[in-house]
Design brief:
Layout: H1 2-69, H2 72-94
Helix pairs in contact: 1-2
């Protein structure tokens, strides 16, 4: 019995050592991933700042070009109006649109199967039924119409 207790103690120590090693490995890997993501985020931020300055330089150039034939205040006003209109269009493109009647809403609305033109059904599909002869009784729900529109179980088929 003493040998079994000794083996259990070794097993517990081994499990603890493996858990510690796994935690350290995961912690180091997460640190490395965080370091890479931080670097990527800084590069994106720098790229955005440079793009902002480039856009400002283009706006100044457009204003100066307009200033050749117009007074400076008019060139600045036109440039501001164009930039304001562009900002308005971009903002509207980013706003979520309310769903039109017949369109699906919710988290799965954009996951419609291909070929459904982006709209999802809001009811289960109903299988098509063969045509029923004029004047024939309609089949009960879930039943197919009978041959010739006559139900063989009906005791008075023509009455």
């Amino acid at each position: 019995m003493e040998r079994i207790d000794h083996m259990e103690h070794l097993d517990r120590r081994l499990v603890d050592e493996l858990a510690r090693a796994a935690r350290e490995t995961i912690r180091e890997e997460l640190r490395e991933q965080t370091r890479r993501q931080r670097r990527t985020a800084m590069l994106y931020a720098a790229s955005g700042a440079l793009a902002l300055y480039a856009g400002a330089a283009v706006a100044v150039a457009a204003g100066l070009a307009l200033g050749i034939g117009l007074p400076d205040w008019a060139a600045a006003l036109i440039t501001a109006a164009v930039l304001g209109a562009a900002a308005y269009l971009v903002r509207n493109a980013a706003k979520p649109r309310p769903a039109r009647p017949g369109e699906a809403h919710g988290p799965l609305a954009g996951n419609a199967p291909s070929g459904t033109s982006g709209t999802a059904r809001q009811y289960p599909p109903v299988p098509p039924m063969p045509p029923v002869a004029p004047g024939a009784p309609l089949p009960r729900r879930g039943e197919a119409p009978h041959e010739g529109g006559v139900d063989p179980r009906d005791p008075h088929p023509h009455g």
